[in-house]
UniProtKB/TrEMBL annotation:
Gene3D superfamilies: YgaC/TfoX-N like chaperone (3.30.1460.30)
InterPro entries linked: TfoX_N
Name this polypeptide is given: TfoX N-terminal domain-containing protein
Protein origin, superkingdom: Bacteria
Domain named TfoX N-terminal: residues: 21-108
Amino acid sequence: MAKQKKSTPVNETLLLNIREALMNREHVVEKSMFGGICFMVNDKMCICVRGDHMMCRVGPEDYETYLEERGCEPMVHGGRLMKGYIYVYEEGYKRATDFRKWIHRALAYNDKL
């Protein structure tokens, strides 16, 4: 029998903050993915919550620059680097201005797709 991965509880406050940030946006759907909750915007993965961090799809153009900011690291899934996707930990989004900045970046890239 295969072992099931233990899922990390989702930070409900972070989840609610993202829901609020996206509430006036059209075509937003929540899906369970990557052991957390992902927000699909216009049928494209945009922002996810897993545990106490969020994943932001920011695209490859500014990816390296964004990784230099505090509380960030590249997304690795299944041992593979997912360039253009960044995990942002609490220290990177705890200030309201930082949180809004990450939401804006993810939505701006989503709008380009």
